Amino acid sequence: MTALVLSAFAGLIYQFGGNLNNGNPHAPGSHQAAVMPNSEPADDSADKSSARNNNPVIPVAAGPVIEINTEIGKLRVELYPEYAPDAVTELIKLTESGYYDSDTLMQSRAHLGFAIAKLGQSPKTFDFEDEPNKLTSRRGSMAIARSSASPAYLNNLFFGYRSQPALEKHYVIIGQIIDGLELVEKSPSGLRIKVNSFKLIDRNQSATKPGGYSG
Prior knowledge:
Elements: H1 2-15, H2 45-48, E1 57-58, E2 65-70, E3 73-79, H3 85-97, E4 104-109, E5 114-119, E6 141-145, E7 156-160, E8 171-179, H4 181-185, E9 192-201, E10 213-214
Antiparallel strand pairs: 1-10, 2-3, 2-9, 3-8, 4-5, 4-9, 5-7, 6-7, 6-8
């Protein structure tokens, strides 16, 4: 089963290496608003009761918050500069420059337990080093692929619906969704959601306060 999951993950990395706008109803000139279904998010009750989620809380200092404005609502992500300083610094620079404000799509992969936000056109080429850390995946984790899996770096952002221990060697966690994940969780696999903007916000605007990181 682990091999199957890893194989599927690797396939997605290369699948998304192409242009998401190919055949995409959200491409310029053919945009259609995504329709939220009535389906429920994947059941992660088994994950909640796992030994992994009974580990002691890993302290995480209050980090900057990015707001991702999509056509179906807003997600807010707390970043972890303490554990991925280079990636977080670069992500904030890209956010403030408007890098993600056009041609970015979020696609649900509910059957695999995560969603991916990817630039559709002219992605930046990065020269980067991995920043492995001790954070383990859980519901709402935001991660980037390690260089051994993909050169995409901050062009591809992954959002977990549940703990993904089998995939952790392929990515590095750099933040945590603190508000809005349920919007994407309820989307059917394959649905492409238009991202309107990324912006850095005052963390006091965030409804959820940091409470450490439970691995």
